[in-house]
Design brief:
Elements lengths: L6 E3 L4 H6 L5 E6 L4 H16 L5 E6 L4 H6 L7 E6 L2 E7 L5 H12 L2
Parallel strand pairs: 1-3, 2-3
Antiparallel strand pairs: 2-4, 4-5
């Protein structure tokens, strides 16, 4: 994994990278054809750098990870889900003007 970069996950490696992670994980459910996802992408990458070592940041394309997206009831993208100890602890759906600060607030509330 490149330092401060997001990790691509899919149905195959989701459990290893997300569920079994020793640190909290932010998962960006997205798709390359989604305009709002393209807006969120650079913010997600920025957060990966800012929270490097404290939160693992993963990206799951719903085109490649449909089973996982269905399991977590992802109906709209982008959907950002925060996991801690393998469990969903919070989520954000869509991109609002306060997207970056909303995500930071949610991350800050779970990191120790």
């Amino acid at each position: 994994m490149a330092k401060g970069k997001s990790i691509e996950v899919n149905d195959t490696n989701f459990e290893v990278e997300v569920i079994n992670s020793e640190i909290p994980v932010l998962v960006d459910f997205w798709a390359p054809w989604c305009g709002a996802c393209r807006t969120a992408g650079p913010i997600i990458e920025k957060l990966a750098g800012e929270y490097d070592g404290k939160v693992k940041v993963c990206k799951l394309s719903v085109d490649d990870g449909g089973q996982t997206a269905t399991k977590y009831s992802v109906m709209s993208i982008p959907t950002i889900i925060l996991f801690e100890n393998g469990k969903v602890v919070d989520q954000v759906v869509g991109v609002m003007p306060s997207f970056e600060s909303d995500i930071k607030g949610k991350i800050d509330s779970i990191i120790k």
